[in-house]
């Protein structure tokens, strides 16, 4: 049986550890994803917990729409198009000694995520949202997928973390066809 966000393991992730500020600027997310707050916070904290970041880490998570993420993508990456997730690192050096580590921001776009689910990227929008959050957080803690070996390591870590949330491996079909 698949775990739900009400499971004790996930509840433990929500009760302690890094601070995650969640902003939902696109109301469609709340209508489409049951228990969106618990799922989003559990996915972010699980990725942080497994990254070696201290409990005093702060992360901002924004669930938005294609319009807003397109503007950010254009302004910061020079790409005039929406994307599924953006990660913006914080200024860790600006954190005073003993103060929380300001890790950065993870921003996820609703319409792009929905199109990807319709295209077979995940079984549900909830599963895909958790995956995109984990992926974005892993970028902030130093993981990348520019080189094949980096991509494979990052994908294995994502799959392992998603399994802890009861979410099927998003890379299973690609791996089994290799």
Radius of gyration: 16 Å
Largest sheet geometry = 4 strands, mixed
The structural domain count equals 1
Going by helix content, strand content and strand pairing, the class is alpha/beta
Shape: globular
Would you identify the CATH H-level superfamily?
Answer: Metalloproteases ("zincins"), catalytic domain
* Poorly predicted sequence stretches spanning 5 or more consecutive residues: 1-6, 8-14
What is the N-to-C order of secondary-structure elements (H for helix, E for strand)? HEHHEHEEHHHH
CATH class value: Alpha Beta
Q: How many strand segments?
A: 4
- Could you give the distance between the termini? 28 Å
Give the mean pLDDT: 88
* CATH overall fold name: Collagenase (Catalytic Domain)
If strands are numbered along the chain, what order do they take across the biggest sheet? 1-2-4-3
Describe this structure in words.
The protein is an alpha/beta fold and 178 residues long. It has one domain (8-176): Metalloproteases ("zincins"), catalytic domain (Collagenase (Catalytic Domain), 3-Layer(aba) Sandwich), CATH 3.40.390.30. 49% of the residues lie in helices and 16% in strands. The chain has eight helices and four strands, in the order αβααβαββαααα. It has helices at 8-15, 27-32, 36-49, 66-77, 110-118, 125-140, 148-164, 172-176, and strands at residues 19-24, 57-64, 85-89, 101-109. A four-stranded mixed beta sheet has the order 1-2-4-3, sandwiched between helices. It starts with 7 loop residues before the first helix and ends with a helix.
């Amino acid at each position: 049986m698949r775990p739900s966000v009400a499971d004790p393991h996930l509840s433990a992730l929500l009760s302690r550890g890094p601070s995650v500020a969640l902003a939902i600027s696109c109301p469609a997310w709340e209508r489409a994803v049951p228990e969106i707050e618990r799922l989003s916070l559990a996915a972010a904290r699980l990725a942080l917990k497994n990254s070696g970041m201290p409990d005093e880490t702060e992360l901002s998570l924004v669930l938005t729409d294609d319009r807003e993420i397109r503007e950010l993508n254009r302004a910061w990456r020079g790409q005039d198009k929406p994307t599924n997730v953006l990660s913006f690192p914080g200024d860790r050096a600006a954190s005073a000694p003993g103060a929380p580590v300001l890790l950065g921001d993870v921003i996820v776009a609703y319409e792009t995520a929905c199109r990807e689910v319709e295209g077979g990227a995940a079984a549900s929008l909830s599963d895909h949202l958790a995956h995109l959050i984990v992926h974005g957080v892993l970028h902030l803690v130093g993981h990348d997928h520019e080189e094949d070996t980096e991509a494979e390591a990052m994908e294995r870590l994502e799959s392992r973390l998603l399994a802890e949330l009861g979410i099927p491996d998003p890379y299973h079909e690609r791996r089994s066809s290799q």
